[in-house]
Amino acid sequence: MRMNTLGEAAVRAAKDILKRCDSCTICTKECPLLKERGMPHELARDALVGRLDPAMPFLCSLCGLCSVACPRKADPSGFMRLLRAEYIASGAYPLEPFAAYLENETRLLSRNHTFLAAPPGARRGFLPGCGLSGSRPETAWKTYEMLDATEPTAFLLACCSRPSDNAGLHSVAAGRVRGLVDRIAALGLEEVLTPCPGCREMLRSVEPPFAVNTVYEALAPEADEREQDPDKESLDIAVQDSCLWRLDKAVHRAVRDLVWGSGHAVSEMNHAWYRTTCCGAGGRADLAGSPLPESWRAQRLEEAGERPIATACTGCARTLGASHPTVHVLDLYLGADPLHPPVLLQGRRAHAARLELKRRARRHFRKLLQDA
Fold first, then answer.
1. Residues 6+ positions from 34 with CB-CB distance below 8 Å
2. pTM above 0.85, yes or no
């Protein structure tokens, strides 16, 4: 094992934390990891002198709540992300815990799982993301049909390489997402719409020549105009906000518009909007053997109480849905029962579902060409 010395970016981040952190304990009240492992300035100091446990950054959910909570604008979450890359690159932390996770990304990057096509005159495209296209392929396609019905829309079945980024392979992920951006740009699109927080963040990270927005913002203007079934029971729905867009009020509002547009009512949890907490899947800390994901998940379920949960993140839906009624907001908008949400496909079934979704899209665009 090599010495876990730091590169320039991580050194700057560590020194910034040392300058800003005054041990106020606000972040530790929100984060069980900091409460257990120490204040941000202590972690930064230990990292600078090569004394920090290299496993530490991989136990973090990278959710960003600590950074948002800090009154002095320190960024412990961003520092943990940099340390992941540092410790993977130096060999201080092994990649083995992420092996299967990364193998799945390689599979999703293959030509078998990739399909990009645009109808004539398309200005925008729909990128469903690996999560929705595998776990809820029917929802992915129905969402595409809603978008395409209002204006010609490209269908973009591809992987954004978020797993590599989570594992600390930032340069690998950046190169792969740049390749995807170039392929999308070749279609002449001006905007990409996605339901996936990870896809939006990854595409935006390489400054694409097109806008990247959420599908929720595109659908929200129609939500208030929907006819509601007077006989349908309206339930109070707790919304689990994605950590990755905690500061994006427009997305939070749009997701809630879709909940209201589905005929139900939004009932906020204590940690919501910019104060949202991790569902337990963030940063894939579970792969590093962290016991904390279960504590994060338990907190969300305690705050939800007896209310069903709606979320715009398939990772959140899968994690919370294992023991509590949790529905993807697009399924809810399409009429799903929040008390008995559709099953999220996993493993081989999700793999097969993505392949079938690709075949469905290919048939659709082949027919467009034949009818042209």
1. 27, 28, 40, 66, 76
2. yes
Q: CA 172 to CA 85: how far, in whole Å?
A: 11
Report CA 306 to chain centroid distance, whole Å: 25
Asked whether the beta carbons of 314 and 129 are under 8 A apart, the reply is: yes
pLDDT tens sequence across 248-288? 999 999 999 999 999 999 999 999 999 999 999 999 999 99
Structure-block tokens of residue 314: 């398939």
| Residue that the structure tokens 């309206």 belong to | 234
With 0-12 CB in 10 A as exposed, 13-18 as middle and 19+ as buried, what is 203? buried
- Longest Cα pair distance anywhere in the chain, in angstroms? 67
Domain locations in the chain?
8-90, 104-220, 227-333
User: Could you report the per-residue pLDDT of 340-370, keeping only the tens digit for each?
Assistant: 999 999 999 999 999 999 999 999 999 988 8
List C-alpha distances in Å: 70 to 17, 27, 58, 100, 118: 11, 6, 21, 35, 44
Both tokens assigned to 142: 């129905």
Task: Say what the pLDDT of residue 126 is.
Answer: 98
**Each residue's pLDDT tens digit, 121-145:** 999 999 999 999 999 999 999 999 9
Cα separation, 338 vs 327, whole angstroms: 6
CATH topology for the 104-220 domain: Rossmann fold (3.40.50)
Bridge partners, 154 (sequence order): 125
